[in-house]
Amino acid sequence: MKRIAILLFAAFACWACEKELTWHRDDIPEQLQVNAQLTVGDTLHIVHLAVSDAQTVRSVKDGSVRCLVNGVPVATGRRVDQDTFPGGYAEPFGSAWHPLSMRQESFVFQADFRAGDVVRIEAEAEGGRFKAWSEVTVPAAPQISLKDTARQEDNESRLRIRLTGRDDGRERNFYRIGEVRTFRQWLPVGAEVPVAEWLEDAYVDIGRDPLLNEGIETDDLDLFGSYVNQYRLFTDHLIDGKAFDLSFLAGYFLYGDTPQQDQANLVIQRTTIHVAVLAITETEYDFLRAMNLYDSLGGNNFFTEPASFPDNVEGGVGVVSIAHPTRIEIRMPDRLRDISYHAYE
User: Fold this and answer.
1) Given this model, what pLDDT does residue 211 score?
2) Are 136 and 250 in contact (CB under 8 A)?
């Protein structure tokens, strides 16, 4: 895997980056950027293309994307309008980094991936002037499930979620806790058709869990307070081939059981918490870990070496990765709610 030192880069949501091969940035020629974070099970996969040199990033002309699985072509990318870019694909890397602002072109395609598949993304632009490709092997989904939950005594709207799993021990494995979301529904008493529903990102606090803090001893965490594992990464270096537990706090809306002024206004509030634990590639792990470090320093690396970012695109620059999720649903107890007492949120 190639490694490059980057001084200026865009967020991973848009997968744009400028690489510095030497201290003489003027020596970097124009090259094709190919950036994609693919996930097994997604209905659409998206690839971002741009052209960059030492100073600028510009949109591509006549770009194209092709996907091959185990050497067999399976899909051709379709360019999508950046004004209608599906915002969900920007998570969890910051929806503020819209592709339009980064002068990238986005291409979507449909394809099914399975563990062990070798996925190749090929991209061209400007009549074949730029050609680049990347190959990634799909990791196996994490062997992980829900162990238990507990409400915090000092704050009942925060739920302690404990997961249990086992690392397969066959190869180096890299993981992260992905999206944690709450899905709320209001259902009239005795009915199964909701009158309102919300899907929201939950607040997540990894606390002092050893796996989610890179193995740092809990008593020493304050010494490392400048480093925040905002992407909730962990590896198998403490759990290689072993069973493990990990836990974190998730905030959710704990409304209900309110004054019942009018039985006609009562609804059942049904809440489900959705947690995704992903097996990721080493390239994605290294990229996000470098982003963690850079962000923890507030971009100020005057007293440190420049962060080293991975690049696994041949013939160009960028990061292509595939994540394989295990999804967990946690059904919370139903609660009564008086909708005349609480306004819609």
Assistant:
1) 92
2) no
Count of C-beta atoms within a 10 Å radius of residue 215 = 12
Distance CA 334, CA 269 (A): 6
What are φ and ψ of residue 219, in 5° steps? -70, -20
List pLDDT tens digits, range 50-80. Answer: 988 777 788 888 899 999 999 999 999 999 8
Domain ranges of the chain: 2-140+282-323, 143-277+328-338
- 268 within 8 A of 334, measured Cβ to Cβ: yes
For 254-263, what is each residue's pLDDT tens digit? 655 555 556 6
Q: Do strands 2-5 and 72-76 pair parallel, antiparallel, or not at all (unpaired)?
A: unpaired
Does the predicted TM-score (pTM) go above 0.85? no
* Residues 286, 319 contacting (CB under 8 angstroms): no
Given 2.60.120, 3.40.50, 2.60.40, 3.30.420, which CATH number is that of 143-277+328-338? 2.60.40
31 touches 317 (CB < 8 A): yes
CB 34 within 8 A of CB 283: no
Angstrom distance (rounded) from CA 33 to CA 51: 6
Residue 306 DSSP SS3: coil
Nearest CA to 115 out of 94, 92, 140, 148 is that of 140
Residue pair 102/57 in contact (Cβ under 8 Å)? The answer is yes
Residues in the chain: 345
pLDDT digits (tens, 9 = 90+) for 174-216: 999 999 999 999 888 888 899 889 899 998 999 889 899 875 5
